[in-house]
Automatic annotation (TrEMBL):
<dbReference type="InterPro" id="IPR050475">
    <property type="entry name" value="Prenyltransferase_related"/>
</dbReference>
<dbReference type="InterPro" id="IPR044878">
    <property type="entry name" value="UbiA_sf"/>
</dbReference>
<dbReference type="GO" id="GO:0015995">
    <property type="term" value="P:chlorophyll biosynthetic process"/>
</dbReference>
<protein>
    <submittedName>
        <fullName>CHLG protein</fullName>
    </submittedName>
</protein>
<feature type="transmembrane region" description="Helical">
    <location>
        <begin position="20"/>
        <end position="38"/>
    </location>
</feature>
<dbReference type="GO" id="GO:0016765">
    <property type="term" value="F:transferase activity, transferring alkyl or aryl (other than methyl) groups"/>
</dbReference>
<dbReference type="Pfam" id="PF01040">
    <property type="entry name" value="UbiA"/>
</dbReference>
<dbReference type="InterPro" id="IPR000537">
    <property type="entry name" value="UbiA_prenyltransferase"/>
</dbReference>
<keyword id="KW-0812">Transmembrane</keyword>
<feature type="transmembrane region" description="Helical">
    <location>
        <begin position="151"/>
        <end position="169"/>
    </location>
</feature>
<dbReference type="InterPro" id="IPR006372">
    <property type="entry name" value="Chl_synth"/>
</dbReference>
<feature type="transmembrane region" description="Helical">
    <location>
        <begin position="50"/>
        <end position="68"/>
    </location>
</feature>
<keyword id="KW-1133">Transmembrane helix</keyword>
<feature type="transmembrane region" description="Helical">
    <location>
        <begin position="181"/>
        <end position="198"/>
    </location>
</feature>
<feature type="transmembrane region" description="Helical">
    <location>
        <begin position="251"/>
        <end position="271"/>
    </location>
</feature>
<feature type="transmembrane region" description="Helical">
    <location>
        <begin position="121"/>
        <end position="139"/>
    </location>
</feature>
<keyword id="KW-0149">Chlorophyll biosynthesis</keyword>
Length: 306
């Protein structure tokens, strides 16, 4: 059943798509674990306050900014695929949409700067990550670049925003992002390309009409339905190999165990009927994927050489 709100605060919340916040929260927690500088049992209330602020900025605030911006530039597509959405249905004005975009974007950058000042950072690394996130969100949705028009650039931009950026925000809050960690998170983000491809199945017809080169349009539904889980799961296998390489065998086995149900759900749900089961597949497999990022990050935080 579609929720059809008419009260403005609820409409604003609907634009922020709270259902998309949890992966970013997991990403922040992963970064905190990878820093190796946060003890969950002995951390002070001040440290937990910093963690909460980082979660708030990465999840509700900057994801809300991203989703609102994306909905504005997707209003023509949504008019075809999801005409009940707040913008194409006319339940919120253009001025109100841009107010929300500016407030959330500005709040996110401000919160990032507060974290840097609070931690005594120079250069302000959390702020730098937030700036990259705000910029990526804009070029993902808005012309002339509009990265989402092409499945490769669009899916990777989305993937890095959901894995690399929140991870780096969490790690920079309590530690530092080394070149190794930056490369690792950018590679891990390739797994989210598969997740982004799954999201494109709900808008195949609209993408075709508007000339968007999503993976299901470019390769066809029957090919893209295999691409999505193969990309996601094969990248996770390389992370298992990396954890074995740095000597974190138990964490590697834990990540491998979390991969198995993802493969099972891909076979029984998504590959069987990607159009019908895309949401069910995401809901079933993504928790295991997100927990897997925390397992991998914990291995790094636990390793004395990383």
């Amino acid at each position: 059943m579609t929720l059809y709100y008419t009260h403005t605060p609820r409409i604003r919340l609907q634009l922020c798509k709270p259902v998309t916040w949890p992966p970013l929260i997991f990403g922040v927690i992963a970064g905190v674990c990878a820093s190796g500088n946060f003890d969950w049992s002995t951390a002070s209330s001040e440290e937990y306050a910093k963690l909460f602020l980082c979660v708030l900025l990465s999840g509700p605030v900057l994801v809300g900014y991203t989703q609102t911006l994306n909905d504005w530039y997707d209003k023509d597509l949504d008019a075809i695929n999801e005409p009940y959405r707040p913008i194409p249905s006319g339940r919120i004005t253009e001025e109100e949409v841009w107010q929300q975009i500016y407030v959330l974007g500005g709040a996110g950058l401000t919160m990032a700067l507060i974290l840097d000042v609070w931690q005594g950072h120079w250069p302000p690394t959390v702020f730098a990550v937030a700036v990259v996130g705000v910029f990526m969100a804009y070029i993902y949705s808005a012309p002339p670049l509009k990265l989402k028009q092409n499945w490769i650039t669009g899916c990777y931009a989305l993937g890095s925003s959901y894995i690399a950026l929140p991870w780096l925000a969490g790690q920079c809050t309590f530690g530092q992002a080394t070149p190794e960690i930056i490369v690792l998170t950018l590679w891990y983000s390739v797994a989210a390309v598969g997740i982004a491809i799954v999201n494109d199945f709900k808008s195949v017809e609209g993408d075709k009409k508007l000339g968007l080169s999503s993976a299901p349009v470019v390769f066809g539904v029957d090919t893209a339905k295999y691409m999505a889980p193969i990309i996601k799961d094969s990248v996770q296998l390389t992370i298992v190999g990396y954890l074995l390489y740095i000597g974190e065998t138990n964490y590697a086995l834990g990540l491998l165990a979390l991969l198995l149900p993802q493969v099972y759900f891909a076979k029984t749900l998504f590959i069987e009927d990607p159009i019908k089961n895309d949401v069910k597949y995401q809901g079933s497999s993504l928790p295991f994927f997100s927990i897997g990022t925390i397992v991998a990050a914990s291995a790094i935080g636990n390793n004395p050489l990383h």
